[in-house]
Every structure is written in C-alpha cells, then in structure tokens.
C-alpha cells in the first residue's frame, strides 16, 4: 500500500550517491548530474466513500481500477514553445568532438564567434520553425470548426463553472494557498510552474518559489483518479492557462487555474465511458485537444463545445496509405476506422472526430515536430504512425514482446523511440519503411523492468548525434547517446548511396 501524506516534502540530499557522471565517450563531453532538490508529492488518502484498499491478488484476472501514478508538466510563461528544430543545425567535421550546451544560456560567449560561421546554429524562441509553418491546421477547410468570435479579440474565453464554489459530487475539495494572489503577483515571470496529478489529487505548484513545496492549488476529486493532463502552450499567459485533465471515469475537465474556473466534458461518459490514458492539445490549436481512451479509441474534443450523444456516422471504412498486398507492413484488421471525421458537417457538439485504432488500450501518443504525424503505442505491442491531418494510417510496427508503454519523437522528426513491457527501448526510423527499408534501427537494453517514460534532450542533439532519457518501474533513470554512424544503415538506403557513388 502506498504511503499516505497530506503535505508535500522538500529535501536537499547531498553526497556522491545523489550525483552521476555521463558522457565520457567518443561523442560527448563529460557532464555531472547532481540532484539539487527532492520534492515528494503527497499521496492523497482514499475518499471516505471509497471501498477500503485491499492487497490485490496478482494472479486475479478481475479488472482493476485504472491508475497512472504521478505525471508532471512544467510551464514557463516567458518562453515561446520550443521550435521543432535541432539546437545545432550543422555538425562538426568527422573526428572532432563538439560540446553541445545544456541550454541556450550555457557557454554563450564561447559560441558567439562560431555562430557567425554557422558552426553552431541556434533557433531563437521567436523564430519560426523551418517546417512547422508548412503544416495546415487540423481540420483546415471545415468552417464549422472555427471558434466563436469574441467581442474582445484579446480576451480568452473562460470555463463556465467556479471550481472553489462547486457543489458537484465529482469534486471533493479545492484548497487554495492562503496567499495565492500575492504569490502570483510577486513571482518571477520566467519561473517554472508545475502541474501534477497523483491518484485523485491534482496540484499546481510554483517551482521558482522558496515555498515550492506549498502548492498554489490542490484539487481532490471524489472517486475519479486523474490519469493524465496537458497544458496549452499556445494560449498561456500570466492571466490565462488552459489545462485539460483525463480521468479514470472517462470524463475530462478543462480548468483555468488563474480564475479557478472549470468545465466538465464527456460528463458521465456520454461520448466514451472508458478511462482516458493520454490527453494532449493539438499543436497550434487554441481549443482542440486529443484524448486516448482505454478501449482503443482516440477522440478529438473542443473545449468550448457542449457534449452530444455520440453515434458513429456512416462508416468510412478502414483508412491506410500503406500496402495491403501481403507485404505485412500494414495489417487490414489494424487499420484506422474513422467513426467521425474532422471534416464532418455535424460539428454542433463534441466529439469533433473519433478514430478507432484497436481493441486494446492505447498507452501513449506523441505529435511529430512538423505537426503532421502522430505516433501511437498500445497494449497490443504496436507502434502506429498516423497522418492525423488526413486521418490515415501510414505504418504499423511491433514490439519485441508485450505492450508498448511510451513514445517520443526526436527533435528533427527523423526517429521515434518507444519503451515497453519487454524492458527495452526501441529506435525506429519510420520513413525507411515507406522506402522499403527496415524501420527498426536499434533496441536498447538497460532497464530491468517496464519502461514508463522516454524523452529526447533537445540541447544534446545535433544532425548526427542524439541523446534521450528514459525511466522505468525499476526506479532507474537512463541516459542514452546514439549517433547516425553507430546505426546500421537500412538496406534500401545503403543501396541508394551505393548507386549514387557509382553514378
């Protein structure tokens, strides 16, 4: 049984056991990682109306309530969303080992001279990513998806209900810091906010404050567990933050923390009654977000629309742009079924779009840096690459064994990394499959249990060298470096290069 606390605990551990050295090799300079602060988030006790927690029989086949542990999102109001480009746009010559700064401010003076000669390229927060601007908006051409015009164009639409005064049985209690307004006014604008869901609790924290252990707001829900959440980077400001949360009941809450207002979507599971395993705002959108439900369905919601009773529209049939002539690259039974298209003329109420991908639980998904593709991993051990703008399945790949649990794209969009129940991390090159090559380029062994999350470090990546990190249920954090030169070139690409060499 988990330990139950009421307050967060902040500690500052010291000693060699709280630091480690990485990057001593051919491709990286040494780097010392030190644990500076350890913030333990309080695990909320069960609601009095909940049945007592019993130690479950691990051999029991009875379905258990959906849980997700702790998930965290950081937000900086003073920084534009990171452009979909590599920090370094030009690699150094072979044989030379370059130092890739940890962030924009590191070694600034030492790189000024090199920047002028394009040895080191940096994308400023105000620059437009080189390819993201070419991607059309999701649902472009469907005028029914346009948001309702506001009288004041600079004023954001707020949710309709007051969170602190809510009498909804869905919410048990809302606790605001006694000096909430003062803390928000006096905080540094470039400081980090943190949003965290822990079982039936959701916390809003100020990580730039000396009082970071004292939450700004803590919401306790009655029985529903918050499994996932996301913050809209497009609409963020000092007076407005859009947060969406997905719950074990299938319901979704759109919350605006600065005014403590909220709207409840998919109420009582009217659209889909299965738990929400992952939720993310659609890139570039102010009002549309995508939720993955545990029945293998992905649903696009509009935060400003009311819910409607959903019945699948005329079945468009499975959609794929892949081969179905026996090559095995795309399985007919695993294609995407569009139950409602984003281009549907019926857009008066939610949902905006509904896609059935699988009969198994969707564990995670990630948008590509060019805002055109979607990588989805499922409990059936599949990695699906979708063109979500066209609502088409492009590629289908399989884990070594077991389900895939997490996924992310490299900053340049060339690679996809997945983690799974096989304790492995797999590196994929989706574009190679389309050219007849091998999509799987490497499997990485290092974890002793299921991998729970994976992410690239954009400040440690260039055109040929990449770094990503992973965490698992073995309580390990692993940092991985790989180079294009280390990977076996797919056969199709090798043949193309050989033909060019002899041309």
Would you summarize the structure shown here?
With 503 residues, the chain is mainly beta. It is built from 4 helices and 31 strands.
Helix- and strand-based class?
mainly beta
Strand content: 25-35%
User: Spans of 5+ residues with little confidence (pLDDT < 50)?
Assistant: 91-133, 323-333
Helix content: under 10%
**Numbering strands along the chain, what is their spatial order in the largest sheet?**
15-16-17-20-19-18
Distance between the termini: 67 Å
What is the C-alpha radius of gyration, as a whole number of Å? 23 Å
Number of continuous helical runs: 4
Count all strands and give the number: 31
Shape label: globular
Main sheet properties: 6 strands, antiparallel
Mean pLDDT: 84
Question: Secondary-structure blueprint of this entry?
Answer:
Elements: E1 9-11, E2 19-22, E3 31-34, E4 38-40, E5 70-76, H1 108-116, E6 161-162, E7 171-176, H2 180-186, E8 192-198, E9 201-206, E10 217-221, E11 226-231, E12 243-247, E13 252-256, E14 261-265, E15 276-281, E16 288-293, E17 297-302, E18 318-319, E19 336-340, E20 353-356, E21 362-367, E22 373-378, E23 382-387, E24 392-398, E25 404-409, E26 416-420, E27 424-428, H3 430-434, E28 440-445, E29 451-456, E30 465-472, E31 477-483, H4 491-502
Antiparallel strand pairs: 1-4, 2-3, 5-8, 6-14, 7-10, 8-9, 9-10, 11-12, 12-13, 13-14, 15-16, 16-17, 17-20, 18-19, 19-20, 21-22, 22-23, 23-24, 25-26, 26-27, 27-28, 29-30, 30-31
Protein name: Catabolite repression protein creC
GO cellular component, one term: nucleus
Keywords: Repeat, WD repeat
